Amino acid sequence: MNGGNYACTTCPAFGITPLQHFKTPIKNAISDLSIPNGYFYTNIPQGLAWAWRTITPGVPFDEATVINDPTFVKHKAIILLTDGQNTVISADAYNAGFTSSSRRDARLKDLADAIKNLNDNDPDNDNEILIYTIQFANTSSSLVNLLKYVATNDDYYFYAPDRASLQTAFKKIAKDLSNLRLSK
Asked: Which tens digit of pLDDT belongs to each residue from 49-82?
């Protein structure tokens, strides 16, 4: 899916890389990312929403599948990585209230709650969605609290002040997901 962003008219129309088992297209997509000059906003709820849509079967992403094998572990995971505060540009004074910090953070919490409520309403955890959050190179305590809230629980939150700790966080997440698969 490609699309621009109303508030960032210079943002390139990057698409979302479809779910797949091949590293090269994923690495290429990451390498192609760039920050448009002068655009320093991080809309975290939008990232979480698109991640949720991507791993949920059905349009617009048909790469996610429904698995009807009762012996297959059906956990899904979102890794929400951010290096910025939850900020967006306000296009005009009319909608400025909708882009205030408290409302943005509330929308992110509401979205995380919606995903977690799906888990709570699935007693067998057949389609559980785990949310891992990584705070990269940003020391804001308000962001710590926000990302801990969004994560499945505090054990799913990681602070990574540098590249080495980011790699460690991803290794821990990979190990955790592998252990889930083996324990079921």
From this structure: 989 988 887 777 777 766 676 666 667 899 999 9
User: Could you give phi then psi for residue 107, rounded to 5 degrees?
Assistant: -65, -40
Q: What is the DSSP letter of 136?
A: E
Burial class (CB in 10 A: 0-12, 13-18, 19+), 148: middle
List the beta strands (DSSP E) in the chain: 76-82, 129-136, 157-160
CA-based end-to-end distance of the chain: 34
The edge-to-edge listing of strands for the beta sheet with 157-160 is: 76-82, 129-136, 157-160
At 164, which amino acid appears?
Answer: A
What amino acid is encoded at 54 in this protein?
Answer: T
Cα-flanking dihedrals φ and ψ of residue 18, to 5°? -60, 155
Amino acid at 144: V
pTM of the model: 0.79
Coil, helix or strand at residue 121: coil
CB 46 within 8 A of CB 31: no
Which sequence spans correspond to the domains of the chain? 1-40, 43-183
